[in-house]
Amino acid sequence: MNKSYMRFLLLILSFTVVSGAAASDVMVRLFELQDCSIESLLDEGYDIATVNRTQNYVDIVIDESYLSTLESKAADIRVLPESWVRLLPENTDDAGYYLDPAETWAFWTDLAAVYPDLVQYPVTQGQSFQGRDIYSICITSSSGPSDKPAIFFNSLIHAREPATNSVLADFGLWLATEYNNDTMATIILDNSEIYFMPIVNPDGYEDNMTGGNMQRKNMNFTIPVPSSGIDLNRNYGYQWGYDDYGSSPNPYDETYRGSAAFSEPETQVIREFTNTIDPIGSMHYHSTGGMVIYSWNYVNQPTPHQSTFESWAAAMTAQNGYDYGRCGQLMYPSNGDACDWSYDNTEHQTCLSFGVEVDDNGFWGSQNDSTAIAEFCAECRFMNILLCMNLINLTGIEITTEDAGMGILSVTGISPNPVMNSLNFSASIPSGALEVTIFDLAGRRIDQFEVENLESGNCQLNWAVPASVPNGVYMLIVESGSQISGSRFTVLR
Ligand SMILES: [Zn+2]
Q1: Range(s) of the domain holding residue 27
Q2: How far is the CA of 222 from the centre of ligand 1 (A)?
Q3: Is 310 helix (H, G, I), strand (E, B) or coil?
Q4: pTM exceeds 0.85
Q5: Could you tell me which residues are beta bridge partners of residue 31?
Q6: In angstroms, what is the span from residue 225 Cα to ligand 1's centroid?
């Protein structure tokens, strides 16, 4: 075989194999599906970018030349801006306002240099298929307990979702700069170790910098020969290959799960890392669509932690309006994903893990819009803070004293927690008058009021949170006679 023929063959292969990288890809929004369903679109192998059941649309990535195959499938089909699927201009090795691989590394090493007491330098945890380092960063303070629980944030498991990397950088920066300034940053770093793994799929991300742009999977094109890579977020070991729904045995599908659970070096790295740090919670970042997702994802059924997942997700999305639920409720079930494996306690303790779909403009749509990036980072920062606060406040502090002559005084049912404007709670009281005091964690009195002429039994009380009270953790103390009771809560706006 002569050399030029060989090169020609490789060229042909590279075009057919790397299905996600064609420069003719477009993203289209299908409003009101007709004569088809999410299920049938998946069956036909369409690359579904996101599903919005509330607004009744599906975003699909497709080669422009196949656009006509969608014609009859929806009432209204719109082609979304080119920037949503492509870095422009092409092949400039520049991710615009997103962080490219070199910028990501520089960001975290600079942060470690500026805040050496808080931010550890990136540590390599293993290598990708093509041999690139997969690194993690730990942020914590030297204060607090010696054995702090870990909380794990990761991004770019899907290489075409650069918004996720920005969100992690933003949260790392906030933690480091706000420590000893913001009450919650201080509480979080004093009481937990926050781990970041910003680029889980470095090969795919590097490929996207130089003209790929739509590579979602890893760059292992050898299993079986050939494929267009393995979807790392279908390659995890919990219920891997449970069915072919949202997880495909076809090597060319964007949801191809690989030849076996944990067949890929990237998921092996995460597996070992997770089992080592043994986190109490984790956040797995994706884009796009504006959603918070929790298990189970392999089937549309609740876990034993459904009520916790649901109430936390409701609080997390109270400001940004993201949808929340299980994969099967929001989009479609999918097995072998990171959340299910992280939550399952076979290999490590139960980890309350959430998946987030950042509400970006398609995959690359904010490349020239630093304001949009700042906005979705702030939306996600609120969720990150809340998750950490909830995880380390899991049990809270409750004080109850008992006076044999008067019965028990107790405070229960603090809600919502965290609170924005109005805190409800109930007190079980012996009788008479009650004094309520709110303290911050430094012991300063924030507010105080008295309730009189109470009959014994359960009473419902309320505290309107003054606008001047900053975000943070507070103590509610109720006193009656010689008795005292209290509970901890969080203000988060
Ligand atoms: Zn994703």
Answers
A1: 13-84
A2: 22
A3: helix
A4: no
A5: 57, 76
A6: 24
